[in-house]
Amino acid sequence: YDVTVVELKEKDKTGHDWHDMMDIPVFAAAGIETPEKKDYHEADSIYYRSPSKKALIPTQFDESKQAIQIDRKFLLNHLINQAEQAGAKILFGQKIIRPICNGAWVSGIVASDGEKEIEYTADLVIDAAGMYSPVRSNLPSHFGILKDIEDQNIFEIYRAYFKNETGETVENSYTVDMFHMDKPGIDWAIVNEEYVDLLIGKFRMCGTLTEQEIDASIQE
């Protein structure tokens, strides 16, 4: 295949400050070089806590699958390097403007490098531009695809890493609270010796996540 990837961000700015969970055999199954052990660590058990906080249910990982946690920025860079070595052309710093449509299918895209618009044609276009994709939002109506994501399908989050000043850890280091503080969504806290990773999430169909809700969840 002749593969071209058009990416909005520059190469060193892709991804988020986030850790992904995955199984080590996935790399070999996909024909991708497995990262070195220094680049990931074993996944911690996840504990799900009920809204009443009376139930705490652990999720244990299958040891044969070698579940790990890996930094997303590192993982993306690893995948980019593997793709480029396999012959894919990855064009960074290009903003997708709209799709090129030919009857009932998408036959390419128009992108901008900041100075001029460039047309890319293809036999197959895969849209991975996210919920605000300029490809999907500019498709003709006869495609029958929603141009905008509805509130009932949006999950808003606040995400932050705090430095662990004391180096202390807790017994259940990865805890997910369901409907935390009566908020329709989930919150989590991941604690290790270096940092505390907090996620506060709410379904937008029940209203926008407010600063007051964020502050209250952080303090609690």
Model description:
With 220 residues, the protein is mostly beta strands. Helices cover 13% and strands 35% of the residues. The chain has three helices and 14 strands. It has helices at 25-29, 72-85, 211-219; strands at 4-6, 19-23, 41-42, 46-49, 56-59, 67-71, 89-91, 95-102, 105-112, 117-121, 155-163, 174-178, 186-191, 195-203. The chain has a six-stranded mixed β-sheet with strand order 5-4-12-13-14-11, with helices on one face. A three-stranded antiparallel β-sheet has the order 2-6-3. It has a three-stranded antiparallel β-sheet with strand order 8-9-10, with no helix packed on it. A hairpin with a 6-residue loop joins β4 (46-49) and β5. The chain is globular. The N and C termini lie far apart (52 Å).
Write the layout of secondary structure elements.
Elements: E1 4-6, E2 19-23, H1 25-29, E3 41-42, E4 46-49, E5 56-59, E6 67-71, H2 72-85, E7 89-91, E8 95-102, E9 105-112, E10 117-121, E11 155-163, E12 174-178, E13 186-191, E14 195-203, H3 211-219
Parallel strand pairs: 1-7, 4-12
Antiparallel strand pairs: 2-6, 3-6, 4-5, 8-9, 9-10, 11-14, 12-13, 13-14
Structural class call reads mainly beta
- Helix count from the secondary structure assignment: 3
Distance between the termini: 52 Å
Question: Can you tell me the residue ranges where pLDDT is under 50 for at least 5 consecutive residues?
Answer: none
What quaternary form is this? single chain
Q: Largest sheet, if any?
A: 6 strands, mixed
Q: Tell me the overall shape.
A: globular
- Count of extended strands: 14
Helical fraction equals: 10-25%
Written as H for each helix and E for each strand, in order along the chain, the element string is EEHEEEEHEEEEEEEEH
What spatial order of strands do you see in the largest sheet?
5-4-12-13-14-11
Arithmetic mean pLDDT: 93
- The rounded Rg comes to 21 Å
Percent in strands:
25-35%
